[in-house]
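2024-03-11 09:14:02 INFO queue: dequeued item Adenosylcobinamide kinase, len=174
2024-03-11 09:14:02 INFO validating residues
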Amino acid sequence: MRILVTGGVRSGKSRHAEHLLGTADRVTYLAPGRPADGSDPDWDARVAHHRTRRPAHWQTVETADVAAALREVRGAALVDCLGTWLTALLDENALWEADAREVQHVVDGQVSALCDALTTVGDAVVVTNEVGLGVVPSHRSGMLFRDLLGSVNQRVAAVCDEVHLVIAGRVLRL
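2024-03-11 09:14:37 INFO prediction written
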């Protein structure tokens, strides 16, 4: 079973995703965001909070190459989250100010690889942010991120068996 869990910031989506795999014997937790490094105390606190919630027997892999990591998974996988993955992808490829066609080409290729790899994992939960319900960004980078993540979410949802929307800690199965 593959499940995409989406929702807003602090909605409870990560906790729900972790709960979905709580009884699995073997879980690989893929963290594609930048690791805690002391440069941003707020980010470091979030990373630490997530780490303390994970069962001790889960293996954690911190990498932006989620597709390659998924192909190595034996057991279940939890990817948390696509928003940090997309940010890393845009950063690593210097795409924030790039031509829209170049951005789309790079992102499309990476999303295809991610979706292909996701289909090789028996049980997987993927967490993402729902960014299209709120404020319209006033800067190009915000609009770029919102639009790209919306497309990423649609493509990943298409290879998942279920999509769960989490709002205020409540789960709606779509």
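2024-03-11 09:14:37 INFO annotate: The first helix runs from residue 13 to 20.
2024-03-11 09:14:38 INFO item closed
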